[in-house]
UniProtKB/TrEMBL annotation:
GO biological process terms held by the UniProt record: glucan catabolic process
Entry superkingdom: Eukaryota
Protein name according to UniProt: beta-glucosidase
Reactions the enzyme catalyzes: Hydrolysis of terminal, non-reducing beta-D-glucosyl residues with release of beta-D-glucose
Top-level enzyme category: hydrolase
Source taxonomy: Eukaryota, Viridiplantae, Streptophyta, Embryophyta, Tracheophyta
UniProt keyword Disulfide bond, yes or no: no
Domain Glycoside hydrolase family 3 C-terminal stretches: 249-457
Length: 467
């Protein structure tokens, strides 16, 4: 099963899972559902509506749309918290990706830890059974999040019998119980014996689960197909990842007022300074969900750091100096042609990433200040979401949002040096201050540092030369 995180509409970047969702615009989130036929295969004509469809000979996996529903709209962006919004808001902002997923035959849907207007989604009969199963006629299975039914009560697991009762009656078909599964089986069995849960509810769940398992061919081939495992991390895949990096970078500033644009940078230069906590750190440029749950700084996997990529790209005559956090004395005693400052957030995932201030890691802001006050500089921000840039923007000659480029740092250098042009646009509003949040495109009071959809472009050097 492959879980599709990008269906979450992030409404507040303080939310630590914000980088797991693609956009604040539900129309763009809807395009993410194209991953479903990509995983499961294209639905043939005349296939019954809203039934799961899995027939992709190459990979044969079940897609899982998550997290149903409204998890990106929680108050103050607190993970697993409460989304306060009326039905129309829920339907128009958070639901479109699910409408689309069901239409495209998604096999499973995972429920969100969060609540809607104070009611835990894992016990919400109206949305799981009433809306998803009865109204949308979803015929795949609904799965819980891990230990999520425990959290129906506060504190978690305070009344597990109640958690089992409320979640199964709400319409959850498969429950993730990582540890106390004997207790789960005992409680569920007892609730059936006492007729608190009718057998028809179990029949519904079993029918849905078997439907997906038959389509996956689990009974014919119960073991995983490892025939493509040798291709993981192949050069071909790395090239594709590098292309994705090139296309996802967003150029936010290029030249101070009245100045020439700084980018693309010249490959020929005497001395180039590279600085910042994220310039030579694979773990930092990958972020969370890499090797470890929360990722980790350092050389945690094979890849090209941005520093290495810069060295690979510049003219052999150019001298590249790396200093993570240079002081004024160092800066004044060298005659740098320009500087590239690469700073950002440290790796995180889920609630570990919840942030009240959205600041980058120390000493990021002082590195920006010191370098940009002395040398012409481009700042590259590595982050899963918009972070606080003010009041440092005016010091920078250029600013690039590189998000989490992953292992293929060469994609960053490709665009910095104009082998390719900048084309990326902001999929989220970039706030000035955290006090403005939540602030999304379409809001009455919309005063961002950079609006949704913003992004400057540059022309590849080859095309400049040809003009
Ligand atoms: C736990 O929940 C059940 C309902 O499933 C209820 O009958 C029981 O009284 C609850 N127990 C406690 C200690 O609250
Ligand atoms: C990671 O690898 C690079 C390149 O080999 C090296 O320059 C750097 O010092 C290493 N970093 C750590 C934290 O080991």
């Amino acid at each position: 099963m492959v879980c599709i995180l990008g269906l979450q509409v992030c409404r507040d970047p303080r939310w630590g899972r914000c980088y797991e969702s693609y956009s604040e615009d539900p129309k763009i989130v809807q395009t993410m559902t194209e991953i479903i036929p990509g995983l499961q295969g294209d639905i043939p004509a005349n296939y019954p509506m809203n039934f799961p469809y899995i027939n992709n000979d190459r990979i044969k996996v079940a897609g899982c749309a998550k997290h149903f529903v409204g998890d990106g709209g929680t108050i103050n962006g607190i993970d697993e918290n409460n989304t306060i919004i009326d039905w129309n808001g829920l339907k128009n902002i958070h639901m479109p990706a699910y409408h689309d997923s069901v239409r495209k035959g998604v096999a499973t849907i995972m429920v969100s830890y969060s609540s809607w207007n104070g009611k835990k989604m894992h016990s919400n009969y109206d949305l799981i059974t009433g809306y998803l199963k009865n109204k949308l006629k979803f015929k795949g299975f609904v799965i819980s999040d891990s230990e999520a039914i425990d959290r129906i009560t506060s504190p978690p697991h305070a009344n597990y019998t109640y958690s089992v009762q409320a979640s199964i009656l709400a319409g959850i078909d498969m429950v993730i119980v990582p540890f106390k599964f004997v207790e789960f089986i005992d409680d569920l069995t007892l609730l059936l014996k006492k007729n608190v849960i009718p057998m028809s509810r179990i029949d519904d769940a079993v029918e849905r689960i078997l439907r997906v398992k038959f389509m996956l061919g689990h009974f014919e081939n119960p073991m995983a197909d490892r025939s493509l495992a040798s291709q993981l991390g192949s050069q071909e895949h790395r090239e594709l990842a590098r292309e994705a990096v090139r296309k996802s970078l967003v150029l936010l500033k290029n030249g101070k007022t009245g100045d020439e644009p700084l980018l693309p940078l010249p490959k020929k230069a005497q001395k180039i300074l590279v600085a910042g906590t994220h310039a030579n750190d694979i773990g930092n440029q990958c972020g969370g969900w890499t090797i470890e749950w929360n990722g980790q700084s350092g050389n945690i996997t094979v890849g090209t750091t941005i520093l290495t990529a810069i060295k690979n790209t510049v003219d052999p005559s150019a001298e590249v100096t790396y200093n993570e956090n240079p002081n004024k004395e160092f800066l004044n005693s060298n005659d740098f042609s320009y500087a590239i400052v690469i700073v950002g957030e440290l790796p995180y995932s889920e609630s570990v990433g919840d942030s009240k201030d959205l600041k980058i890691a120390e000493p990021g802001y002082s590195t920006i200040t010191n370098v940009c006050e002395s040398v012409k500089c481009v700042v590259i921000v590595i982050s899963g979401r918009p972070v606080i840039i003010e009041p440092y923007l005016e010091k920078m000659d250029a600013l690039v949002a590189a998000w989490l480029p992953g292992t293929e740092g060469q994609g960053v250098a490709d665009v910095l040096y104009g082998v390719y042009g900048f084309t990326g646009k902001l999929a989220r509003t970039w706030m000035r201050t955290v006090e403005q949040l939540p602030m999304n495109v379409g809001d009455a009071h919309y005063d961002p540092l950079f609006p949704f959809g913003y992004g400057l472009t540059t022309t590849p050097r080859e095309l400049i030369a040809a003009q």
